[in-house]
Amino acid sequence: MLDNLKTSLRAAIKKIVNSSGVDEALIKELAKDVQRALLQADVNVKLVLEITKNLEYRSLNENPPPGLSRKDHIVKILYDELANLLGKENEFSFKPGKLNKVLMLGIQGSGKTTLTGKLAKFLTKQGYKVGVIGADTYRPGALVQLKTNCEKANVDVYGEEGNKDSPAIVKNGLKHFADSGLDIILIDTAGRHKEEKDLLDEMKEISKIAEPDLALLVIDGTIGQQCYSQAESFHKTVPVGGIVITKLDSSAKGGGALAASAATGAKIMYVGTGERIDDLELFSPTRFVGRLLGMGDIQALLDLAKRLESEADDVRMKRISSGKMNMDDFYYQLEEVTKVGSLRGFLDSMPGLSGMVKEDQLDQMEGRIQKWRFIIQSMTKQEKADPDLLNASRIKRIARGSGWPEHEVKELLKNYKNSKGMMKAAKGRQMQGFMRKMGLG
């Protein structure tokens, strides 16, 4: 995403890192390079001047903290200033033990219906039970498109083909899902233009019926700085709690969209980074900037390692680290990888691995993980606890039950054994284990 901005910023940093010494002329040159990169990414001129002024002043006047070189400190200042530009960290979380209702809003053509399907998939991966109500009665084929997208996530969609009364559909949809044990309901509404009074009135009525816990505004990243006025006009009708930026993968104006959205005060919660159903991720300014500057998403890896330690019981962790891991433990780790989101997003977050894995290799890896999950699910409790029990006849039965050929079961066993030995060697360095297990180490 934002490849031109990424390339320009990294080139600017390279000048600092490769220089023999840091002087005022070099700092001024860095500020100009950053200025040029941000303006080309359609960031507001006033914001760009503010950032580069701060960058120059701080780089010339601040003393690096103990243990940090002046070069590293300048890169850290750039990191801080860009992260501040993109707003504060999003702290929203869905409330457990109740039905959370999310109203999806957006201009026609923003990619809202596609995004609703992606968000449904993303949330199910996080362990939530999700349902969707299709209330876009204006665009022909909207309900069919929504159902097609949500099928990929195994999410149920409620809609009424032929009914033009959107508020009534929302009311009926909420009744339909009332006793279904869902955690989250996404409500897809008609795309509208800010001057269309009837549609804005309908939006108010739907909001009154649904009483949403969160209104998410979906904005096309290719419109750049216009995001600000768009978000502002929607916010006047229904209070916008979060923003989703779509189409960041191909947008030269993506920097402008991100900066403008952050300036509205509504938090950017998710970003769409590609066309695939899995190409959606939680937005964090600090992580995003880290990836732009080529630092990798260090925080994401620390968070995952922390979750591994806090969620796993002591017995499991002792078993894994001592090399006595069983198939249940192996399955648990596969689940942890998929919780992070798309594998592409996961690999992009790894320092030094961003962009190194080709798309066809990525598809193979994602396919492999899916196969392994199905195969392990076809094993008995005893076989999971002691995979050494798996002889030829058991492998044949598991292959038949999982729907995959016997050689795939054998491939899983081979990788399980490799991982088992590797975990003993890594002991506490689970991230290396994940990468090697996927054939990347």
From TrEMBL:
Where does the chain bind GTP? 106-113, 188-192, 246-249
Keywords, A to Z?
Cytoplasm, GTP-binding, Hydrolase, Nucleotide-binding, Ribonucleoprotein, RNA-binding, Signal recognition particle
State the top-level EC class: hydrolase
Pfam families, per this entry? SRP54, SRP54_N, SRP_SPB
Give the reaction(s) catalysed: GTP + H2O = GDP + phosphate + H(+)
Q: Which residues form a coiled coil?
A: none
**Compartments where located:** Cytoplasm
Q: Which GO terms describe its molecular function?
A: 7S RNA binding; GTP binding; GTPase activity
InterPro entries the record matches: AAA+_ATPase, P-loop_NTPase, Signal_recog_part_SRP54_M_sf, Signal_recog_particl_SRP54_hlx, Signal_recog_particle_SRP54_M, SRP/SRP_N, SRP54, SRP54_GTPase_dom
Give the EC number(s) listed in the UniProt record. Answer: 3.6.5.4
GO biological process: any one?
A: SRP-dependent cotranslational protein targeting to membrane
According to the entry, every stretch annotated as the SRP54-type proteins GTP-binding domain falls at 99-294
Extract one GO cellular component term from the record. Answer: signal recognition particle
- Role played: Involved in targeting and insertion of nascent membrane proteins into the cytoplasmic membrane. Binds to the hydrophobic signal sequence of the ribosome-nascent chain (RNC) as it emerges from the ribosomes. The SRP-RNC complex is then targeted to the cytoplasmic membrane where it interacts with the SRP receptor FtsY.
Q: Which family does it belong to?
A: Belongs to the GTP-binding SRP family. SRP54 subfamily.
Domains as described in the record: Composed of three domains: the N-terminal N domain, which is responsible for interactions with the ribosome, the central G domain, which binds GTP, and the C-terminal M domain, which binds the RNA and the signal sequence of the RNC.
Name this polypeptide is given: Signal recognition particle 54 kDa protein
